[in-house]
Amino acid sequence: MSYLRLEKLDVAYGRAAAVHGLDLVVGAGELVSLLGPSGCGKTTTMRAIAGLLQPSGGRIVLDGQDITTLPAHRREMGLVFQSYALFPHLSAFENVAFGLRLRRLPAAELQPRVAAAIAAVGLAGFEQRLPAKLSGGQQQRVALARAIVLRPRLLLLDEPLSNLDAKLRVQMRAELRRIQRELGITMLYVTHDQDEALSLSDRIVIMREGRVEQDAAPEAVYHSPATAFVAGFMGYDNLFEWRDGALHAPDGAAGRWPLQLPGPAAHAAWRPEQVPVLAPGNGLAGRVLARSYLGERIEYLVETELGPVKGVGPDVAAGWREGDAVSIALDPARAALIG
C-alpha cells in the first residue's frame, strides 16, 4: 500500500520544466533512491516533496493526505542535505535538540528523546563535543540524529554522503541502512552514485530529464536495464543495436557482427568485465587503443568494426599494449537484452 504518492507531478523553474508528469509510489517503511545524472530532476522532486518548491501541476499525497499546497513546516518531514549545516557553537546534543526546543518540548521528554536519537546513530558519549571536534562521518550522524529526533513522517536525504571519503562512505551506507531498518522510517534518498543506490535501496528510481526511466528493485536495475539510457548509466559501456541477426554500431556506422541472442531485443549490452579480451582469431577482431591497470585485471579499450569496445584481460606481466591486434568475445548468454 502506498504511503507517499506522486501523481503526474510537474515542477518548473520559470519557463523551464524540470520534472514532467512524474508518478511515484513509496510504501511505508521503504527506502527508495532517486538515481540519475546531474540535472535529471531528482533533487527538484525531493524539494517539491519537502515543500521547498511549489509544483506547477500534479499532486503529492502522504499517508492519505494531500500535502501539495501544505507549507513546508507543517509537513513533518526530516531533511538531511549534502551540507550538514550544524551550528558550530552548539554541542552535538544541542544540535540534535534544537528542533525540539523550538517546539517547546518539556525537558523531561526532550532529554530521553535526544539521547535515544544520538544512541541510534552510534554517537553515545559524544554529546558534548562541538562539530569542529567531530569527524566528517560523525557530523553526518549528528545531522541524521537531528532529523530523526523529530519523528518525521518521511525522511528525505539529498546526497548526504558526498562530502565523505570513499572508505567512510561505505561505512555510512551500512549505518544508514541499519538505522532505517531499526527505526522503520520511510526514506527517500537522492544520489548520483550507482553503488550507493544499489547497496541501500529497496527500490531504485532512475530519472532522466525529469522523467522516470526505470523503477525496480536494485537487482533488476543492475541485471535487466529497461532502456538503453539505464544500461549506459548502470555501467553497460558496450551497447549495440541488434537487428537482422547481427549487432550494429550504435551511432549508425556501417559495422556489423553476426550474433544470435537468446531472446528478442532492440539493443544488447555488456559490462566491460563481461567481455574477455583474447588473442587474435578468437572473436570480433580489434586493435588496442588504450589499457588501464586495475590490479587483478587490465581493462582495454579496443577499436573494432562496431566501434570502441571495453573489455578485460588477466593481470599478466606482459598483456597487450596499445596498437596490438586482439579479439573480443561477446557472449550472447551474458548480454543484457533491451527493448
Describe the protein in words.
It is a single chain. With 339 residues, the chain is of the alpha+beta class. The protein has two domains: 2-229, P-loop containing nucleotide triphosphate hydrolases (Rossmann fold); 235-338, Nucleic acid-binding proteins (OB fold (Dihydrolipoamide Acetyltransferase, E2P), Beta Barrel), CATH 2.40.50.140. Helices cover 25% and strands 34% of the residues. The protein has helices spanning 42-50, 92-102, 107-120, 136-148, 166-183, 194-200, 218-223, 228-233; strands at residues 2-13, 16-27, 31-35, 57-62, 65-66, 77-80, 154-158, 187-191, 203-208, 211-216, 238-243, 246-248, 256-258, 267-270, 277-278, 284-293, 297-304, 307-314, 325-328, 336-338. A six-stranded mixed β-sheet has the order 6-7-8-3-9-10, with helices on both faces. A five-stranded antiparallel β-sheet has the order 13-12-11-14-20. It has a five-stranded antiparallel β-sheet with strand order 15-19-16-17-18, with no helix packed on it. The longest helix has 18 residues, at 166-183. The chain is elongated and about 80 Å long. The two termini are 29 Å apart.
